[in-house]
Amino acid sequence: MTVTAYTLAVLLDLFCVFLGYRFWFQPGPAAAGYGVPAGPGGDARAYLSVKGLRDGTFGLTGLALLAFAGSRAEAWFMVCVALVPLLDTLIVLRNGGAKAVAFGIHFATAIVVLISAGLLFAV
Fold first, then answer.
1. 82 to each of 37, 38, 71, 115, 118, how far by Cα in Å?
2. What are the distances in angstroms from CA 112 to CA 7, 51, 76?
3. Average per-residue pLDDT in the chain?
4. Most exposed among 14, 75, 96, 107, judged by the fewest C-beta atoms under 10 Å?
5. Three-class HEC string of 38-64
6. Total Cβ atoms within 10 A of residue 9
7. In Å, what is the CA distance from 105 to each residue of 2, 34, 46?
8. What is the pLDDT of residues 62-114, one digit of tens each?
9. How far, CA to CA in Å, does 9 sit from each of 37, 41, 65, 106?
């Protein structure tokens, strides 16, 4: 169980780092993948940069907690971070995004993050 808990936590943290990278360096495709594409009428680079910074920071913070504070701290962090994809689900739905993206990506991510937290609490 310990290997599974740590592996899932590290994978989720690295995925957040990847998302941050993608929003910084491929903002248009990243926004479309998020479920609410950046509008054609304006410059959305600031919004996309903030999104990338948020995701990347969560990933790096999670890795640091796991490395230096242990599984319990990482588990509580995951519980708190699960709010982000849950609220992302609502953001996509409120802004006319596809339900498949809202639930298939964001809500599913929240569930996986909570499963990771549960596994880490069990370690």
1. 22, 24, 16, 10, 12
2. 13, 20, 14
3. 90
4. 96
5. CCCCCCCHHHHHHHHHHHHHHHHHHHH
6. 25
7. 26, 8, 23
8. 999 999 999 999 999 999 999 999 999 999 999 899 999 999 999 999 999 99
9. 28, 39, 10, 17
Q: What is the DSSP string of the chain?
A: -HHHHHHHHHHHHHHHHHHHHHHHHSHHHHHHHHTSPPPTTS--HHHHHHHHHHHHHHHHHHHHHHHHT-HHHHHHHHHHHTHHHHHHHHHHHHTT--HHHIIIIIIHHHHHHHHHHHHHHH-
Residues 6+ apart with CB under 8 A from 27: 38, 44, 45, 48, 49, 52
Question: Which of left, alpha, beta for 70 (phi over 0: left; psi -120 to 50: alpha)?
Answer: left
8 A C-beta contact, residue 20 and residue 59? yes
* Residue the block writes with tokens 């596994």: 119
Would you put residue 37 in left (φ > 0), alpha (ψ -120 to 50) or beta?
A: beta
